[in-house]
Design the sequence.
């Protein structure tokens, strides 16, 4: 797998993750992991991190 296709794949995956966290934040979906309820604030932070990672992957893809 070339570096360009790896960056593109990572960008797409992180974009999907960011969109799912945004949807969870907007719709207020409940998330329970191991019996512990995860707050919406965690999804907001995860959305910001995943968005940054997707942006970085796409930016690196365009540089090559």
Sequence:
């Amino acid at each position: 797998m070339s570096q360009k296709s790896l960056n593109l794949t990572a960008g797409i995956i992180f974009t999907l993750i960011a969109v799912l966290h945004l949807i969870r934040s907007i719709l207020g979906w409940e998330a329970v992991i191991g019996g512990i309820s995860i707050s919406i604030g965690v999804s907001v932070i995860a959305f910001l991190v995943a968005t940054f990672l997707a942006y970085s992957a796409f930016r690196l893809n365009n540089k090559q």
Q: What stands out?
A: Helices lie at 3-27, 40-63. Strands lie at 31-33, 36-38.
